[in-house]
């Protein structure tokens, strides 16, 4: 029972909702005030936190604008309690034979989602990688190329564009067997194709050593005190012309900071946590050493501590 204005009674009257027919009927004169109404409330009770994002208000999967049908196609499932192979039945066979133009895209998006989850990436990066792959796929020029390398390269480019870069070695670790060389070639190919489509060079964002610092420090289990010092040191190091990759500089700064702390980290552990070879860390350390007095924060280490720092 509810209250609504009835145009026949010319006043607010009580109404009855017939949920089976979707009609709203005046209880006094019987006039149907609204027909075929849609109930937009929840279909079942839930006890989740209201602030959560997993409230199943309505059934159905999320839409995907990158797919032809918006991702809302119907799938004929195997009936509950049915025995035997459902695809051997007529409905299953016909659906299996039907050509789905988005089948390849759906599989690619699932692979990208799996890689994103394994790397702990946010949804915006996954969505950007899906968009990049869709643009490349629309050009119909990726046939014969390593699919795993293409998907990994899309994820690498998406991380760069969203200012959350990952190293090629990190991407390679979840790329289903694709090598760093294959991912590098795929990246160059994608950048070239997107550039041809847009008529201009593709902007992937600049990588800074500080982009990797907190994640590398977390992998090593460093304290907040040393993480803060490493973050300040790597930011100061950008003022000097050190011709090393940002990842190598980040690894070398971590090595210096840990050598000045009570919790010294072996070079091997730093190499494993950062993905930088031990020899590369040593060479980067040699380039940083002449500027170490200006790079290391004064509150973290004094001149005496820096003098005791081993020379390269």
TrEMBL record:
GO terms for biological process: DNA-templated transcription initiation; transcription preinitiation complex assembly. One of its GO terms (molecular function) is RNA polymerase II general transcription initiation factor activity. It is found in: Nucleus. Residues 2-34 form the TFIIB-type domain. Pfam families: TFIIB, Zn_Ribbon_TF. InterPro entries: Cyclin-like_dom, Cyclin-like_sf, TFIIB, TFIIB_CS, TFIIB_cyclin, Znf_TFIIB. Keywords: Metal-binding, Nucleus, Repeat, Transcription, Transcription regulation, Zinc, Zinc-finger. GO terms for cellular component: nucleus; transcription preinitiation complex. PANTHER family: TRANSCRIPTION INITIATION FACTOR IIB-2, TRANSCRIPTION INITIATION FACTOR IIB-RELATED. Belongs to the TFIIB family. This is TFIIB-type domain-containing protein. It comes from Populus trichocarpa.
């Amino acid at each position: 029972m509810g209250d609504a204005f009835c145009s026949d009674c010319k006043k607010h009257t009580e109404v009855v909702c017939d949920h089976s027919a979707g009609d709203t009927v005046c209880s006094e004169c019987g006039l149907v005030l609204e027909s075929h109404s849609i109930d937009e409330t929840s279909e079942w009770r839930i006890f989740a936190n209201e602030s959560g994002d997993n409230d199943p208000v309505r059934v159905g999967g999320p839409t995907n604008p990158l797919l032809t049908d918006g991702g809302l196609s119907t799938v004929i499932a195997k009936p509950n309690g049915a025995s035997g192979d459902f695809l051997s039945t007529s409905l299953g066979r016909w659906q299996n034979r039907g050509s789905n133009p988005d089948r390849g895209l759906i599989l690619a998006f699932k692979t990208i989602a799996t890689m994103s989850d394994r790397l702990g990436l946010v949804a915006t990066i996954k969505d950007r990688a899906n968009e990049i792959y869709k643009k490349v796929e629309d050009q119909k020029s990726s046939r014969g190329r390593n699919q795993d390398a293409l998907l990994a390269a899309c994820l690498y480019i998406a991380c760069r564009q969203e200012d959350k870069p990952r190293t090629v070695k990190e991407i390679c670790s979840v790329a289903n067997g694709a090598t760093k060389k294959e991912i590098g070639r795929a990246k160059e190919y994608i950048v070239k194709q997107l550039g041809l489509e847009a008529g201009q060079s593709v902007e992937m964002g600049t990588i800074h050593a500080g982009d990797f610092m907190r994640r590398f420090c977390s992998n090593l289990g460093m304290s907040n005190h040393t993480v803060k010092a490493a973050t300040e040191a790597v930011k100061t190091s950008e003022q000097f012309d050190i011709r090393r990759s940002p990842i190598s500089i980040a690894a070398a700064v971590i090595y210096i900071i840990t050598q000045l702390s009570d919790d010294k980290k072996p070079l091997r552990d730093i190499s494993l946590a950062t993905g930088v070879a031990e020899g590369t860390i040593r060479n980067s350390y040699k380039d940083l050493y002449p500027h170490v007095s200006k790079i290391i924060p004064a509150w973290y280490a004094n001149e005496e501590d820096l003098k005791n720092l081993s020379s390269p």
